[in-house]
Amino acid sequence: MRKIQLSFLLLILVNFCSFGQDGFLPLDNQKKIVYTDVATLEKSKDVLFQNAQKWVVKTFGNYENAVASEDRESGKLVLKSYSPISSPSFEYLRYTLTIDCQPNKYNVTINEVEGISKSQTVTPLGKKQNDEIQEKEILSKTESGKKKKFIAEEALNQAKVDNDQINQAMYSLLASLKLSMTSDGDM
């Protein structure tokens, strides 16, 4: 059973990571960064909620620090937390993660994502980062001088690495949750 779960997680990670390799962040209709997942599982709302709680403890350690609000009756958990990231511009990501458990189904949304640099500067993430990728792509294609073209390409690569690392961190979080939600026993 454990091999099946690990294979499932690997498949999810490969699928999620390949989605974000273009250097762009997923945006909602208000041009704000958002990651979502919906899963149908043959489990009661209470079991899904308990699995979500166990995942929070396993992933974040201190349940009380991570959970901003919980409503067992409605099946909703809202987390405000941080995750480390290895990108040229950011050391951590701060975000809101909402898990909504229903009978045989759960929805998860990650939004309000902010990048935190080593100097503790907080940057809201969203449309601006995608626009910068597009601008840098155009600049690197139109620059005629060797040195300026090299600098433009380096700036483009750094921006893409930042966004790809953000995507990888958030999709890994979603994949980890999915694995825990499908679990039948102790995690």
Automatic annotation (TrEMBL):
InterPro entries: DUF4468 (IPR027823)
Domain (DUF4468) ranges: 38-113
Organism domain of life: Bacteria
Pfam families: DUF4468
Keywords, comma-separated and alphabetical: Signal
Signal peptide: 1-20
Protein name as catalogued: DUF4468 domain-containing protein
